[in-house]
Amino acid sequence: MRIPFLWSCALVLAAVGGNVRAAAAADFQPAVVYDMGGKFDRSFNQSAYDGAERFKKETGLAYREFEITNAAQREQAIAQLARRGATVIVAVGFTQASAVEKVAKDFPNVKFTLIDAVVDLPNVQSVVFREQESSFLCGLAAALASKSGKVGFVGGMDIPLIRKFALGYREGVKYGNATADIFENMTGTTPAAWSDPSKGAELAKSQIGRGADVIFHAAGATGTGVMQAAKDAGKLSIGCDSNQNYLQPGSVLTSAVKRVDVAVFNAFTTARAGTWKAGQLSLGLKEDGVDFALDQYNRTILTPAIEARLKQAKADIISGRIKVSEYK
Amino acid sequence: MSAPAKLPRWADLALLPAVSLGAALLLSAALVAVLGENPATALRLLFTGAFGSGDAVGYTLYYATNFIFTGLGVAVAYHAGLFNIGAEGQAYVGGLGVSLVCLAAGGWPAWVVLPLAVAAGAAFGAAWAFIPAWLQARRGSHVVITTIMFNFIASALMTYLLVNVLIKPGQQSPESREFGANAVLPAVHELLATVGLKVAPSPLNLAFLLALAAGGLVWVLLWRTRWGYRLRVAGANPEAAVYAGIRPGRVTIGAMLLSGALAGGLGLNELMGAQHRLTLDFPGGAGFVGIAVALMGRNQPVGISAAAVLFGALYQGGSQLAFDLPRINRDFVVVIQGLVILFCGALENVWRGPLARLLATRRGDQGGA
Predict the structure, then answer these.
(1) What's the pTM?
(2) Do B173 and A97 touch (CB under 8 A)?
(3) Which of A127, A184, B141, B327 has the maximum number of C-beta atoms within 10 A of its C-beta?
(4) What is the per-residue burial (b if ≥16 Cβ within 10 Å, else e) of B50-78?
């Protein structure tokens, strides 16, 4: 298992100079608030859950959690956790930003870690990921693995976050094969688009029908349908957020991994150690915040030639030789 | 099958729903026990979570406000013989009207903004209901189908507008910028604080009173005006209505316009009162809960308000349940809500017969004594 020590070390070092207050471990109460997708979405929220579980396993400390079902609950749940003495609250998902902003003002002594959005307050740590960098690598992998020169993208909803994935992917594909065709589809216009595997499968089938042989999804639980359809048709798919290579072994080319688990785990551990620090953290390839996944499940399809190209591109992005555009 | 047994009016309106609700909660309690939690604790948490403190009541009534608006909308259409499944989309587009007024209200005084926002919310909601209504009245396209379709068109339109047009520049989250202080409905806990009462904050706001007023308005319109009479006659028997000189097409369109306008009121509570900005998917299914609320409230304003409070309590108490009992997750809360709908809506005739017999024998005993 790869643990981004670099990032943890950077956090610890950055905090040494700051105003550090040692937290008493006895009344240390971490908490996490998941977004609508729920903690078992096999993707974004589940990654946060994995991080919290890892903290629990390694420290033996329990944490509180809450899954949102409607917009009003965000502020309610976060405020309630703060009122009941939570030390650090991780809010997962950009939709929590306004709720965190409100509650953080009312509870200046509680630490808030917000994933995927930025709130500029002295007790809020905002963690954003440079998804475009991992999407670029997945696009490159897709272009190199595609035999037809046609690749697909299935997004959840047409929102800025998903456009960010799509843009990075497009640039990666073009970097690998300047003449490649890219098909793009969004699943829907309501939040149900994140949990509709059958529609994901339909979109994937239609893209395959038009000649695509590698399809990248950024659609939460909908993506499981994309991956199933690609496997059924003997084509390749690319997973998202969590490492999803194991879901359809031998058919998932790689996954655009977003280490939300590490963000959650680090928020908990640094808060416990007293080294938690407010401010903005931008995590990309360099910080091991995002990456492409390589394990025993995709070893046979991600050939050493492709792997070498991906590693080279990764180094180039880190060194700044390749510039990946960010969706604004 | 025999005709449904006749119950005294008080039993039909109060006892029967209470028995159905009790049965639903009993079954829920049994399921809680199966999950390994204490059912008594769970029921207590459900109740105190919804009514146990000032802010709990606030949240319950805040949810109820949404359900009153959509429930009234569904009920008005129902009285005209139309099943409006589109309250969700009408509320969504109505919220757009509210937001446009609130975003445009630069330095306007609050007493100007509020009536304009109410009018815009109602107008946008009504406009969204107009096309299905017109299609039903003039082309015979079934309103159930078209209103469902219009829910999807509404969410597509709103996603487009929020992502491309109304989004606050420089942020990821598809939300508009925050409304100004003059374009916000005051929260009830703030109002109480000005008279010295301290209540923990909740999103309950003045829109609750607007919802109750809308209920009064619906009652007057439907049961105290000719227009309402025509509407109910056309709903009860279209052929007889035509014979009486009522034009069902006009009634259909009028009823749907009012229905959409009422659903559009949801934006007042959710956007102007609670979130203070236009957000993606803010109705959050309240349009569909409104159908259950209207049916359970017998399509009467008072009943709808009571049913809305019940569902508000289930929402709020349910979230407390999920918060405090780790083995009860949000999906189980949906199960409880489903059981309540099942028992109070679909299965109420199960108890009707036995209850009628029970009441009849008791009255018989008294008569004989």
Answers:
(1) 0.84
(2) yes
(3) A127
(4) beeebbbbbbbbbbbbbbbbbbbbbbbbb
